[in-house]
Design goal:
Blueprint (H helix, E strand, L loop, with lengths): L7 E3 H8 L4 H9 L7 E2 L5 E4 H15 L5
Antiparallel strand pairs: 1-3, 2-3
Amino acid sequence: MNYTDRKILLKAEVKNIIRVRSDSAFQDMINAGEFPKGFRIGLRRVGWFADEVNTWIDERVKEARGEAL
């Protein structure tokens, strides 16, 4: 899959999907390596690929249920 074919989510969209309200809590997750780092898509914008966010969620669900990754 080409990068241009992948959907890019902005920070507000990602925070909404993973149900995190504060910017500092979200940044703490990234800094601790608990959430993938985004990539710069503008001077003041960072994006994440939607499929990578969904994979991260899937991994958390499997981890919580004791399933093999």
